[in-house]
Write a structure and sequence with these properties.
14 helices, alpha/beta, 356 residues, eleven-stranded parallel beta sheet, 11 strands
């Protein structure tokens, strides 16, 4: 009799373990796994499949980065019920994704895209303005849109974006070399709550276009103007209007002067500033930054020959407690730039080289 009771108790404990404890453990562990690992787990057993699928929060992301046949994979994934509330789709450098796949999504999976907030099309070079029109018309809640390194995108694509997606706060157009000032006008007029914009290597832009953004998008926290030598102080001075700015990349800003940099120093909340190859800058400009931006954590002066030890002394006076990254390589006017010498001025430095 006692043996029977023990068997019943053991069976009850086993059932409790299977129905309550294991699912709880699976739920905790699964939140720390990548989406690709989760999909692999689905194949382990029918029970595990049912358990994982029962947690909607695990299926808010579709990650097809660098994968082949990405267009067909995306259509197939969005046809599955567990992805009906997907919030993020990442197709960065995915292969075989074209406008026709986006058309299929609109036809077959429209309901699954209504909650989408983030879409990464970086490196998807077969997507055109037509593709942008199609996909943005299906994603009314989109907040983050990235289409880095796409030379097929023009002002027409941006026109479709601003028409269809009213809530964009993070926009990456890096490498979209056929974007003109008209796009910046559209962005400025429609996205005044924009927090981050990347215009790296958008080489056809002018001061006029950039100023539209700087005047109207006053909520910007991140501004990336990497590898753009087309702007002048006329535009750079307007950066001073961005009181919330924390990240600014001006690498290669060959026309930026000390006067322009002094205006940028009014951005008191600046944490990261890249001045690599800003060849007109001297101690005067850097000292203005030191005095104005005392929360600076990252600063690159790489390749600037017009700065000397004097600017580092002033930087040390205002930013020694915050700077953790400082690149003065190639600054031949700075004589005391060994690791030990820099650490004496900036004791919290952890990184001494940003560019190689």
């Amino acid at each position: 009799m006692k043996m029977e009771e023990e068997k019943v108790k053991a069976a009850e404990e086993e059932e409790t373990w299977s129905k309550e404890t294991v699912p709880k453990v699976i739920r905790i562990v699964s939140t720390r796994l990548s989406q690709r690992d989760l999909i692999s787990l689905l194949l382990v057993s029918p029970w595990l499949h049912r358990t994982l699928v029962s947690y909607p929060s695990l299926w808010l992301v579709i990650d097809l980065r660098e994968m082949n046949n990405a267009g067909n994979r995306l259509v197939a994934a969005l046809s599955i019920p567990r992805y009906r509330h997907v919030r993020e789709i990442n197709l960065e450098f995915a292969q075989d994704i074209e406008d026709r796949h986006l058309e299929l999504l609109k036809t077959k999976c429209l309901g699954s895209l209504q909650d989408l907030e983030s879409l990464n099309l970086n490196g998807c070079q077969k997507i055109s303005d037509k593709g942008i029109e199609i996909i943005t018309s299906t994603c009314p809640e989109l907040k983050v849109f990235s289409i880095y390194w796409n030379v097929r995108v023009t002002d027409i694509g941006i026109q479709h974006l601003v028409k269809n997606c009213k809530h964009i706060i993070d926009l990456n157009l890096s490498g979209c070399k056929n974007i003109l000032d008209k796009s910046l006008q559209l962005i400025a007029d429609n996205y005044q709550e924009l927090e981050s914009v990347n215009l790296t290597r958008c080489v056809k832009l002018t001061d006029g276009g950039l100023q539209k953004i700087l005047i109207k998008c006053s909520s910007l926290r991140s501004l990336n103007l990497y590898a753009l030598s087309c702007f002048t102080d006329e535009a750079y001075k307007k950066i001073s209007l961005l009181s919330h700015l924390r990240f600014l990349d001006l690498c290669g800003a060959q026309n930026l002067s000390d006067e322009g940099l002094a205006c940028i120093a009014k951005c008191k909340n600046l944490v990261s500033l890249n001045l690599t190859w800003c060849v007109r800058i001297t101690d005067v400009g850097v000292m203005a930054i030191a005095e104005g931006c005392s929360s600076l954590e990252f600063l690159s002066l790489f390749g600037i020959v017009g700065v000397t030890d004097k600017c580092l002394e002033v930087l040390s006076r205002f930013c020694s407690n915050t700077l953790t990254t400082l690149d003065v390589n190639g600054c031949v006017g700075i004589k005391r730039r060994s690791r030990d010498e820099l650490l004496q001025l900036f004791p919290h430095l952890m990184c001494f080289k940003v560019h190689s």
